[in-house]
Design goal:
Elements (H helix, E strand, L loop, with lengths): L13 H42 L4 H6 L3 H6 L2 H14 L7 E9 L3 E12 L4 E10 L4 E10 L34
Antiparallel strand pairs: 1-2, 2-3, 3-4
């Protein structure tokens, strides 16, 4: 059996195989970096949405549906209602709400988690909402939410006009009677 002349040349096809492997590795690295960038962007959007839906809309259903399983055990319905009631007492914050934070990844590309802080500015006071989020299997979820800040100042009561106590009567001074002169 005779081999074709082209099959006998050493290294033929090796360069093509090397180019294909390099292109595949380059595509995988590009996909990982693009995925990381998208996760960072989506985490910021989700955190801003959480702050808006809780601080402005007081949306209890959104709060419950988007919690991680651990957060659902931590924030039972009564805790969620108390949290939203505290927000209702403060009123509606000034818009737009500034949300700042960072997204961190384990192994540089996987398991993104975000920690965000939102400054809520109310007419009478300010508060800070801290939101921790993570990426579940397919969606972003709330891990924890805390609200810190001074409660709104209680208005000082207006002074009440009260009748002042009447002074105690003092005895009248003795009057000296003039004696008539004898004539």
């Amino acid at each position: 059996m005779r081999l074709a002349r082209s099959a006998r040349i050493k290294g033929e096809g090796g360069l093509a195989l090397l180019v294909i492997v390099v292109l595949l590795l380059g595509g995988i690295v590009w996909w990982l970096y693009q995925s990381r960038r998208n996760h960072e962007k989506n985490a910021r959007i989700f955190a801003r949405d959480v702050v808006t839906r809780l601080a402005v809309n007081y949306d209890e259903k959104y709060f419950h549906v988007n919690q991680s399983p651990e957060a659902q055990r931590t924030y039972l319905q009564s805790a969620r209602e108390n949290f939203l009631e505290r927000l209702r007492q403060l009123g509606v914050p000034a818009q737009p709400i500034e949300v700042q934070g960072d997204v961190v990844f384990s192994s540089y590309f996987f398991d993104p988690r975000g920690t965000f802080k939102a400054q809520l500015k109310y007419p009478a006071t300010t508060a800070q909402m801290d939101v921790d989020i993570s990426r579940g299997m397919t969606v972003w979820q709330i891990d924890s939410v805390t609200l810190t800040g001074a409660p709104p100042a209680t208005p000082t009561p207006a002074p009440m006009l009260a009748a002042s106590p009447s002074p105690t009567p003092s005895p009248a001074p003795e009057q000296k009677t003039k004696q008539k002169r004898k004539r």
